[in-house]
Amino acid sequence: MSYTMIEKFLKFRVPLFLSFLFIFPLIFPSYYTYVFSLIGIYCFQTLSLNILAGITGQLSLGHAAIMAIGAYTTAILSNKFGIPLLLLIPISGLFTAIIGFFIGLPCSRMGGIYLAIATMAFGFAVPEICLKWDSVTGGYSGLRIKQPHFFGFVEDYIALYYLIFLFLILFLWISHNLIASKTGRAFISIRDNEVVAESMGVNLPFYKVLGFVISTFIAGVGGCLYSFLVGFVSPYDFNFWLSIYFLIGIVVGGMGSISGSIIGAIFITLVPQLTSGYKHLPQMILGALLIVSLIFLPKGLAAIPSLFNKKR
Amino acid sequence: MLLQNIFIGIYVGSLYALGGLCFVIIFKTSEIINFAQADMTMLSMFVAFFLLESLNLPYYAVFFFTIVFAGLLAGFIQNTLVRSMAGKPHLSIIIAIFGVALIINSLTGWIWGPSTRALPAPYATAITKVGNFTVYGSDLLAIIVAFFFMTALYLFLEKTRFGMAMRATFQNRDAARIMGVPTHIIDAVSWIISGILMGVAGLFITPLVYLDLTSISEFMIKVFAAIILGGMNSFIGAVLGGLILGVSSNLVAFYISTELKSTFIFFIMITVLFIRPTGLFGKKEIKKI
Amino acid sequence: MTQLYVENLTKSFEGLVAVDSFNLSLEKGTILGLIGPNGAGKTTIFNCLTRFYDIDSGKIQFEGIDLLSFKPYQIIQLGIARTFQNIELLKEIPVIQNVLIGNHAFSDINFFGSIFGTRTAKLNEKKHIKRAQDILRKLGISEWSEFNTGDLPYGIQKMVEIARSLISKPKLILLDEPTAGMTAIEKETIAELITRLRDDFELSIFMVEHDVNFVMNFCERICVINYGRKIADGTPDEVRKDPEVIKAYIGD
C-alpha cells in the first residue's frame, strides 16, 4: 500500500467504518453481532465515564450503578407497564439523569478523592438496594425482559444492533460537539485547574452537576439498551468490578477522548470474550493493562496517533 | 442484653479500627488510599489457610508467618508499583492500585477456587459467664490484641526516632525530605506496618466471616466506612470511628433488623461524605494557589 | 476616578496574619506595581481581590460595587481579569480554545444549540472565534492559533494567557508576575505591549512583580508591602528613596 493510499483511507475512515458497521450483521453470524452490540453498549458507559472523569475531571467509581439504574428502570417499566422500547430509551435516560443530578449536587462540593469514595459508596449502595427491594427489583434472582419485536426486513437482534449503534453514533457526535463548545471548555478547565476555571467565570457546582447529568443520561440509555440486548438484569451484574472495568476502559483507551472511549469499550468487551475459557484471566489481563497504561501510556491508546504526528 | 451487644460491637469495632489504621497510616504518609487492602488481606488469609491445612503448621507459626507474608506483600507492592509511579498524580496511583487489587483477586481465585474455607479463631473458644453476660474468649482476645497493636503503633510513632521521622512526613512530606528524612524508606515502612496490621485484623475476622473471594472485601467496606466516619487522616479517627461504627451497627442489627446492618453502614458512610467529608476527626485541607 | 478601592484589608491563615490592613486606591487607567520581599503577601492580596479567599475584615470596591458580596466566579463578569504566575493554560488544546475559555462568562451560546450543532450556535461560536483571532493578531501570535498550547515556547504561552485575559473585555487586569522567566529583551517587549494594551483597550493594570527594576522603570505607581503591611505607596522616584523600602529589601 502506498503512502497516499493510507492517507486516503484515513481521510474517509469515518464513512468507511460506518459502512462496515452497517453491513456487518448482515454478513457475520449472530454471535459476532451480539458481541458488537455489547461493545456498543459498553461504549455508552465508557463515553459516559469519559465525559465525567476524562473531560470534567470528576472521577466516578460507581458507574456500574448508574448503568444499573437505566437497566433496572427499563426492566421494571417494560415488564410492569409494557412501555415500548423506543419510549423507554429517553425515559431511562431521563430518570438516570435525575438521579445523576441528585448525586452530582453533593459530589460537586467534594474534592477529588472524596468524590471517588462517594461514588464508590453509591456504586455499592445501588446493587444492595436492587438486592433487598425484591418486590420491585426481583431481588436476588433479578428480572427478565421480554425481547423487543421490530417490524421490518431484518431480524430482531439485527434491528437492536442498528438501534444501539444509531444512538451510540448520535451520542458520539453530540460528545464531539460538546468538547469544542463553551460547555466543553468549561469542563476541561474544571478538570485542569478549578481555581483558574473560576477566575474565567465558570460556576463550578453548576458545571460539575451538569457533567453528572449529561454523563448519567448517556449511561442510562446504555443501561436501557443493555436490558433489551441481554434480556436479564440482576444485582451482581453491576458490581464494583464493572465500575473498575469502565475505568480501565477509559484509562487504556484514553481519558478525555471520544476515540479513547471507543477503544476502551472494545478492550473491556473483547478481553473477557476472547478468554472466556479461563475464568480469571480477563481480570488479570485488564488489571495488568491498567497498570501498564498508567505507567507507560497515561494518555491512553488514543494518543498514539498524535505521537506519530510529533515525530514528523 | 444491651451490654452483651455493646461488647460484641466493641469486638467487631476494634477489628474495624485495626483495619482502619492500615488505611490511615498509608494515607497519612503518602495521601494514597490502598484500595487493594481487601484483596491483599484476602490473599494473606488464603496463605494462612495453606500453611495450616496443607503444611499442617501449628497455629502460632501460621499466625507469625501470615503476618510476615502480609507485611512483605505490602512492602513488595509499594516497592514495585507505587515507587515506579513516584512522580505521577495521586489519582493515577490510586487507580493503579485498583489494578493491583484486580490482579490479586483473580490470582487468588485462580489458585484456590471459589469454595469457602474456614480459619480457626486464634484462641480456643473459652466461654466465661458473668451473670447474664457471656464473654467469648476469642472476642476478648481480639479486643486485647487489637488494642495491643494500636498501643504499639502509638508508642512507635511517639517514642521512637523513626516514629518521629514518620510523623514529620505526615505533617509535611516535602519539608521532611528536605530536612533529610528518608521518605522513601518511610513509605516502605508505612506499607509494611499496614500489611502486618492487615494480617492481624484478617486472622481475627476470618473465623467470623469465613474465607472466600468476597468475604474479606465485605469486611473492608465496613472498615472503609469506619475511617470515613473517623477521618482518613486521623489515627484517633480510625480507632473511634471503628468502635462507634462497630457498636452502632451491631445495635441496629440486633434491635432493628440484621438485614439493615449493611444498609445502615452505607447510610452512615454516605451521610458523612455529604455533610462532612473529612469525618469526625479529619483535618480539612487548605487550598493554595 | 478611583476604580479599585481597598480599605483595611486583613487576611490571616490559622492565626498567621498574611495581609494586615492593606489600603489601596487605584485610579482608572493606571499601571500599578505591587512589590515586596518573598512571602510578603502579594499573591494573597490578589487572591483576596478575586474572592478566592474570604477576608477577615476590610472593604473591597470596584467601580463602586462591593466585591465582598460576590463569588469567585462572578468577578470576571464585573470586569476584573487575571493572569497567573505559573502559566495556567490548558496544554492539550489549541491556543484559540484557550483564549475562548476566557470568554466563558460572556458567551451567549445556548447549550443545546452547541451540542446539536445548530446554525445559531455555530454562528455565535464563529463570532467569538473571530474576536479571539483579532486579539491574537494584536499580540502578534495569531499564526499559532491552531497549535496545541503545550507545544509552544514559554514566551508565546505567556502571550496566550494575556490574550485570554483580554477577551472578556476587562476593565482591570491583575497580572501575576508577568515577567517571570523572561529575558531582558522579552521584558522590554512586554512593557511596551502592556502600555499599548492599556491604551488600546482602556485598561487599568495592577501587577505583582518580583523584578524591582522592571517595576521601577515601567510602572506609574508602586506599592511596596512587607510582612503583609504596606510600607510605601507612590511614584517610582518616591518609593526608590523611601527608607522603609530600602530597609525591607537590603536590611539595616
Structural summary, described in words:
The complex is a heterotrimer of chains A (312), B (289) and C (252). Chain A has a domain at 32-239. Helix content of chain A is 77%, strand content 1%. Chain A contains 15 helices and two strands. A two-stranded antiparallel ribbon of chain A has the order 1-2. In chain A, α8 (156-179) packs antiparallel against α11 (204-230) and α13 runs antiparallel to α14. The two termini of chain A are 20 Å apart. In chain B, β1 and β2 (133-136) form a beta hairpin. Chain B contains eleven helices and two strands; from the N terminus they run ααααββααααααα. Helix content of chain B is 74%, strand content 3%. In chain B, α1 (2-30) runs antiparallel to α8 and α2 runs antiparallel to α3. With 252 residues, chain C is of the alpha/beta class. Chain C has two domains: 1-79 and 170-252, P-loop containing nucleotide triphosphate hydrolases (Rossmann fold); 94-167, no CATH class. Chain C contains nine helices and ten strands. Chain C has helices at 42-49, 95-101, 111-116, 119-138, 154-166, 184-201, 212-218, 236-241, 243-250, and strands at residues 2-13, 16-27, 31-35, 57-62, 65-66, 80-82, 172-176, 204-208, 221-226, 229-234. Chain C has a six-stranded mixed beta sheet with strand order 6-7-8-3-9-10, with helices on both faces. In chain C, α2 (95-101) runs parallel beside α5. The longest helix of chain C has 20 residues, at 119-138. The radius of gyration of chain C is 19 Å and the shape is globular. The mean pLDDT of chain C is 90. Classes of the chains: A mainly alpha (312), B mainly alpha (289), C alpha/beta (252). Chains in contact: A-B, A-C, B-C. At the A-B interface, α6, α12 and α14 of A face α4, α9 and α11 of B.
